[in-house]
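Q: Convert this sequence to structure tokens.
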Amino acid sequence: MRTPNQLKKSLASHHLLHVMAAHSPLSARLAEEAGFDGLWASGFELSALYGLADVSLISMTQHLDMVRAMAQQSSLPIVADIDTGFGNAINVIYAIEQYERAGVAAVVIEDKTFPKVTSLVADGRQELLRTEEFQGKIRAAIATRRDPDLLVIARTEALIAGLGEEEALKRAAAYEAAGADMILIHSKQKTPDEVESFVRAWNGKAPIVIVPTAYPEMNEARIKALGKIAIVIYGNHAIRASVTAMKDVFARIQKDRGIHNVNRDIVSVEEVFRLQKMDQIKADEKRFLA
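A:
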């Protein structure tokens, strides 16, 4: 059984961890080969994979099945994006039991109401729970986990909801007081200023997690200069890269009326065989099939 210890050990080394989103076992394996420190089991990416909006339409079972599948194909620690915890504190208890059994290293729970609306959409409904109710979810998660190395990360959407830095700091402090191991602060501003201001003002002990999708100039040097951020999550780049590549290839095939030009610009079938571990299959056939 996988354990969360790997992620906690990496955090103890005090170097910034780079965690890449994944939505499938194949994307998980590619992220590992690229050298990332962990996987973000993204609800947004999985919703997109199903062609659905990220508005709590994907069930816990669907997400959990994909987490298990990714865990089978990658040794990287998995940070599970469990949105609002699939309901109230009772739902969180069940979710923690299931995700811990699946071997995730951390879960991220956000303080929105259920069902949620994805954070970065323009003019989306961004409703937050009462602070006390979300504290109950955090306490439920902490009380339920069997392994203290399983990290419970509280994500506040106060900046996303337009409630300002003061409210974000108050909520983060309350969530830390409820037992959260880390705080994820999210923003949809196009520059890092809002997040940088929050991080500078944060005086809690819980390390900070960021997802700089909306403010891509927040690079490693800028993050390290703040001194309080432990994990940076690249939250949807796997699915966006996949869409970019597929749209390009499909359009070229239609334009050329064939695959004769595009074929040289995409990976070979042999590379896909490698990712599928076909050499191991062939070796096993020789070894075990009469």
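The chain has a mean pLDDT of 96.
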